[in-house]
């Protein structure tokens, strides 16, 4: 008889019967839950703790409590990935010229290249945070130009604009709408738009809804 059976004071037959017994219903449910927990953990970029992960799982239809989830996370050796700090500094406090809001939240267009929306966002990559500047066509909802870089500069938005102009070659009268960031208000950037006959439009101060089509 195995040593453990002797220590526990059970018979040899009882020990082997236990070995052949199929997993309990709860154990089987735990195994299914572990698959869901691991999938959701990865889907949320491994940044959710037990509380937020529980909300996600329940929204997906899984019925479990916080204590059970905590136990399964421990068994799976799941740890939250430490999120790197990232500070966004939008430079709208400047003395550069600001254009009026030509769209006034009228987000309808009758043809492509009637209005473009520009914005800058940031993306987490394995190499750190990168800025993404993009231009989106209001009619087709297509990204017509984009550029990515390590800094949020005028060169970044200019690169995105050059791509859009080369790809689309819009007719004069295109409305270029953006926020009041210094990159879009820069003299060289506005001169490039005016050179191609574009009309410059900017959101009102602090109103993200004025550029809703491309808020990223």
Overview of this protein structure:
- With 216 residues, this protein is of the alpha/beta class.
- The protein has 2 domains: 3-75, no CATH class; 115-214, Ribonuclease H-like superfamily/Ribonuclease H (Nucleotidyltransferase, domain 5).
- It has 8 helices and 5 strands, in the order αααααβββαβααβ.
- Strands 3-2-1-4-5 form a 5-stranded mixed sheet.
- A hairpin with a 5-residue loop joins strand 2 (128-137) and strand 3.
- The protein is elongated.
- The model has no long low-confidence stretch (mean pLDDT 83).
**What count of helical segments does DSSP give?**
8
User: How many domains?
Assistant: 2
CATH topology of the largest domain: Nucleotidyltransferase, domain 5
Parts with pLDDT < 50 across at least 5 consecutive residues: none
Our estimate of the beta-strand percent is: 15-25%
Helix content: 25-40%
Describe the strand arrangement of the main beta sheet, using strand numbers: 3-2-1-4-5
The CATH H-level homologous superfamily of the largest domain: Ribonuclease H-like superfamily/Ribonuclease H
The CATH class designation of the largest domain is Alpha Beta
Element-level helix/strand string:
HHHHHEEEHEHHE
Number of strands: 5
Provide the gyration radius in Å: 28 Å
Indicate the overall shape. elongated
User: Structural class from helices and strands?
Assistant: alpha/beta
Span from first to last CA? 66 Å
Q: Which quaternary structure do these chains form?
A: single chain
Reported for the largest beta sheet, the result is: 5 strands, mixed
Instruction: Provide mean pLDDT, rounded.
Output: 83
